[in-house]
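S.,

As promised, the NAP run. Input:
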Amino acid sequence: MAFKRIALIGLGLIASSISHAVRRAGMETEVTGYARTEKSREEARRLGLGTIFDTPQEAVQGADLVVLCVPVGAMAAVMEAIAGDLEPGAIVTDVGSVKGAVMEAVSPYIPENVHFVPGHPLAGTEHSGPASGFASLFDNRWWLLTPDEGVDRQAVEKVKEFLTEIGANVDEMEVSHHDLVLAVTSHIPHLIAYTMVGVADDLGRVTQSEVVNYSAAGFRDFTRIAASDPTMWRDVFLSNKTATLDILGRFTEELFALQRAIRTGDGEHLFDYFTRTRAIRRGIVQAGQDTDAPDFGRGLTHQK
Ligand code: NAP
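Predicted complex:
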């Protein structure tokens, strides 16, 4: 079932991690790649991420799996560019954080004899570029696939097998459900982090460097998330409008309820709310999706 040749289009965090994970798994798969800028292509060559080409068309020739690893807003243009050079029977997958918009944009360019199995690894860091990847990024992390009903099941199974070999847990999900779930678990949390760090930045101008110097764990964790790639996250919000606006509306309602509880001194409401949310954290740890160690296992001294 293994792929003979995998083409990685885009050579940032996700693609470079796939390359490292393929090597770690001991697969005899050849890896090719393409990045937009010469700088990234050179870096990818230096890091030994695979055979790196100067055009995406050359990179996909002879590949039986093509993985689109570019920002969501660039997927369609990249797909259009490579469509004429895909092997008959090849499988195209992507790693975009939003699935509905990507499927809509990419599907029209998928040739008749090529299978499209859209995907999304629920794994990442705030770093980007060819040097940011590492082999264990996908270990025990979910990788969701959202194939259309008519897609060849053998192609889906082949992608699943590959993703399992590089460490991921694979599941299938209906596409609009994926975009709603991810709005809750990833997209809105990022928006909140961006907002909080923006507020603190404004405050920082008043208090000079106090916001940075005395940043306690809560704020520090927000800054990690808010350091995520601006292009990637701009594209996520522009392409998952419906679900993010829906969840943002609900978030605002909850925030007003908490604001009211603080103003009216309703400690019971606050206590019950925080008790309920604490249980969610336990669930994530029990599911093996994070460490139970204090401060995410960083072992740093706490600033309160
Ligand atoms: P990244 O490290 O920023 O790498 C993006 C790559 O895409 C780079 O090689 C870049 O080339 C190339 N690229 C950017 N704009 C392009 C364009 N207009 N046309 C062609 N190529 C372009 O990004 P990443 O974190 O790997 O993310 C890639 C995809 O994975 C995104 O769709 C994102 O939504 C998804 N994803 C990311 C995470 C995460 O945490 N980072 C998690 C799950 C899924 P240059 O370097 O030459 O500019």
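The chain has a mean pLDDT of 93. Residues 10-15, 35-37, 40, 69-72, 74, 78, 95-97, 120-121, 124, 128-129, 229, 232 surround NAP (CB under 6 Å).

- D.
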